[in-house]
Write a structure and sequence with these properties.
The chain has ten helices and 13 strands. The chain is an alpha+beta fold. The strands form two sheets. Strands 8-10-7-11-9-12-13 form a seven-stranded mixed β-sheet, with helices on both faces. A six-stranded mixed β-sheet has the order 1-2-3-6-4-5, covered by helices on one side. InterPro entries: HypE, PurM-like_C_dom, PurM-like_C_sf, PurM-like_N, PurM-like_N_sf.
């Protein structure tokens, strides 16, 4: 298999199909495009999500906090605690570990999230620091939103711009690949996008507004998240390519390296569905969160289309493969 997330077809066939014990206490279970679990605690639900950071070398502490907190936010839930596993290669210095912990502590404090436990180890099993975080949140049982709740007729909203995380990682970790192709000002702007990769605020706002489904846009980019949301919801989806916001520096990096910005890891962006798309966009904009209606949920399960206002149907939206970031790595 190639680097990156296990393809959805294999995930369904080999991983998810092996789960054969189901408890009535579990109200949100694993599935394609579903990043969280939820456990019934009477009128409340405990919401959990876990994720590793493997594609980045720098800023791994900051990324590790955001990636799991973003998953919890996609349920419309405010994250409250983090369990952290840190695996360090042999030879890691105390200073290197200290910097990672400082990044995690600062980022968690900014999100009002407490690091409540975990495990730290030096091991020959890894060749760079690998962090896996499990985030925990609490919500009223009937207020938990899943990826699978999109309904025909819902607007599809995207926050911020495509490829945010991938743009920042490439600019910070692979600056040498962009030598002579981007200016120093462009590289700084690209790297600074790392400060925009939280979706906690938009997740909580959209959840309170009444979103039907949410999915934070990670590996596979905008198109991967769109396919996963439609697959989970058993619906069709039509995305207007011309409406998808892409930062100039993201476009410049993708042009320089031959990447597709719409298939580039995009933590910091949320895909949201609801009935009143423009109204939710206005609410998010009032909270200084860029939001754009980029498509529509349809009833035809086979209709997974990337359209263009100028050229009609641009392409079929396919199941996500390896993220574009791995082509750089």
């Amino acid at each position: 298999m190639e680097a990156g997330k296990v393809p959805n077809e294999i995930l369904d066939k080999i991983v998810l199909s092996k789960i054969n014990r189901f408890r009535k206490d579990i109200i949100l279970r694993p599935g394609i495009g579903e990043d969280c679990a939820a456990i019934d605690f009477d009128s409340y639900a405990c919401v959990l999500s876990t994720d590793p950071i493997t594609g980045a070398a720098k800023d791994v502490g900051q990324l590790a906090v955001h990636i799991s907190c973003n998953d919890i936010a996609s349920c419309g839930v405010e994250p409250l605690g983090l369990m952290v596993t840190v695996l360090c290669p042999v030879g890691t210095t105390e200073d290197e570990l200290g910097k990672v912990m400082e990044q995690m502590s600062v980022t968690a404090a900014e999100l009002n999230v407490e690091i409540i436990g975990g495990h730290t180890e030096v091991t020959a099993a890894v060749n760079k620091i690998v962090i896996s975080t499990t985030c925990i949140g609490k919500a009223l049982r009937n207020r938990v939103i899943s990826t699978r709740g999109a309904r025909p007729g819902d607007s599809v909203i995207m926050t911020k711009s495509a490829g945010l995380e991938g743009t920042a990682i490439i600019a910070r970790d692979f600056e040498h690949k962009l030598s002579g192709k981007l200016t120093k000002a462009q590289l700084k702007k690209a790297g600074d996008l790392l400060n925009s990769i939280s979706v906690v605020r938009e997740g909580v706002i959209a959840g309170e507004f009444g979103a039907s489904a949410m999915h934070d846009i990670t590996e596979g980019g905008v198109l991967g998240a769109a396919w996963e949301m439609a697959e989970a919801s058993e619906t069709g989806i039509v995305i207007n390519k011309d409406k998808i916001p892409v930062e100039d520096v993201t476009a410049a990096i993708c042009d320089a390296l031959g990447l597709d910005a719409l298939k580039l890891i995009s933590s910091g962006c949320m895909l949201i569905t609801c009935e009143k798309g423009e109204e939710l966009c206005s609410l998010l904009e009032k909270n200084n969160i860029r939001a754009t209606v980029i498509g529509l949920i349809t009833a035809d399960k086979k209709e997974r289309i990337l359209a263009s206002e100028t050229g009609g149907i641009a392409a079929e939206i396919l199941p996500p493969g390896a993220d574009e970031l791995y082509r750089v790595i």
